[in-house]
Design a protein that fits this description.
288 residues; mainly alpha; DNA polymerase, domain 1; hpI Integrase, Chain A; 2 domains; three-stranded antiparallel β-sheet; two-stranded antiparallel sheet; 13 helices
Length: 288
């Protein structure tokens, strides 16, 4: 089917093409135009649709698509990715004249929870340390002592980690936040070193030797929260990091640099030995 499509992209047997065949065509011709993170998320979402893979695409209707979402066994992030995938496939199917209907417009998924910005309590942080060997609990602690976002943590390569100086360079989103230098807090140096030594993909946090995607990580996050009876979003780690620095009396300019925020007092961002040590002194003010 793919060979025929490559010879004549618009000459396929529309009434016979299956979900699997359409997905493979879409993956070859349309997915490559998406970001790597989006591609990875949508490919992971397809795993929850494979029970329909041999069904002719034009015969798949809304309630079957919806069942893939409702029965995936995961939260809003995975559900949203599945819904998004059906939207992509519907659009592509219409381009190929396989179908004239967009059943994906009728699909629903759990909404993104409202961000309450509740900080982790000292007791919750202590519980995380007590259970740090729980799968992925170390990533929560990493967030709490670095202030990183999910996308920043996922994109962190081992080559940006300096185990001699105990610093890491990462961050995205803005000029102030991109490639910022963060001293590695003494409490998480063991976590970083272990992840560094175990990495096979070149990324500090990986899954099965490959780079993580956000859909996968949010599933791991939900498992940690459930196991430890907590109710937080990953972004609340970032909020907690700033709150703990502020409560400990850290310098506001240093807080802004660590968070990747623009500050009137930061001036030109040049990391000399002096200001690296100043950042380290301030981050170490978090003592628990």
């Amino acid at each position: 089917m793919l060979g025929e499509y490559n010879n004549d992209p618009w000459d396929i047997e529309a009434d016979k093409i299956t979900l699997q065949e359409l997905f493979e065509l879409w993956e070859k011709k349309r997915a490559v135009k998406l970001s790597k993170a989006n591609q990875s998320s949508l490919k992971s979402a397809y795993k929850h649709c494979v029970k329909l893979k041999n069904k002719k695409y034009r015969e798949i209707v809304a309630f079957q698509m919806q069942a893939c979402i409702d029965e995936c066994g995961h939260g809003y992030s995975t559900q949203g990715a599945i819904k998004n995938l059906w939207g992509h496939l519907d659009k592509f199917a219409m381009e190929l004249n396989i179908t004239s209907k967009r059943y994906s417009d009728l699909l629903t998924s759990d909404p993104i929870p409202e961000t309450t910005k509740e900080t982790f309590t000292d007791q919750e942080v202590a519980r995380l340390w007590e259970n740090q060997n729980l799968p992925w609990a170390d990533s929560v602690l990493f967030f709490l002592y670095t202030g990183f976002r999910i996308s920043e943590m996922i994109g962190l390569k081992t080559e940006t980690v300096n185990l001699q100086e105990w610093t890491l360079t990462g961050g995205i989103k803005s000029a102030a936040g991109k490639n910022r230098l963060i001293p590695i807090h003494s409490k998480i140096q063991g976590i970083v070193q272990k992840r560094f030594e175990q990495s096979k993909s070149g990324y500090l946090f990986e899954y099965n030797g490959k780079k993580l995607n956000q859909t996968q990580y949010r599933e791991f996050w939900a498992e940690v929260m459930a196991a430890l009876e907590m109710d937080h979003t990953p972004h609340e780690c970032r909020h907690t990091f700033r709150s703990r620095l502020d409560s400990a009396g850290a310098n506001k300019v240093c807080i802004d640099r660590l968070m990747g925020h623009k500050s009137k007092g930061t001036g030109e961002r040049v990391y000399t030995h002096k200001n690296i040590e100043e950042l380290r002194l301030n981050i170490e003010l978090i003592t628990n």
